[in-house]
Amino acid sequence: MTYGTLDDIATGMKYYADVDFELVLKDPPAGIFDRRSWNYWNLRYHREPVPPLPQRLLPGTDVVAT
After folding, report:
1. I need a surface site. Which of 3, 16, 25, 65 has the fewest CB within 10 A?
2. Are 4 and 40 in contact, with CB atoms under 8 Å apart?
3. pTM of the model
4. CB of 47 closer than 8 Å to CB of 24
5. Is residue 36 a contact partner of residue 25, using CB atoms and an 8 Å limit?
6. What is the rounded distance in angstroms from the CA atom of residue 34 to the CA atom of residue 19?
């Protein structure tokens, strides 16, 4: 969903249902999506406003890794 081409996406959509793509958006690991892909997929599945990108905290701190 982040690195695939349009052909890759079309192929994936043949084998996976929309619900599968939506499940990925509900709880993805931090660092998987770039901003552009995150916005695209959330808007495609009508998740508006688009939630913030998942972030990870550095262990033992309150510092967000970017």
Report:
1. 3
2. no
3. 0.81
4. no
5. no
6. 21
Beta bridge partners of 56: 65
User: Does residue 59 have a cis bond before it (omega within 30 degrees)?
Assistant: no
Per-residue model confidence as pLDDT tens digits over 14-65: 999 999 999 999 999 998 999 999 999 999 999 999 999 998 877 888 777 7
CA distances from 44 to 13, 60, 61, 64, 65 (A): 13, 36, 35, 27, 27
Secondary structure percentages of the chain, helix, strand, coil, to 5: 45, 5, 50
Contact 7, 15 (CB under 8 A): no
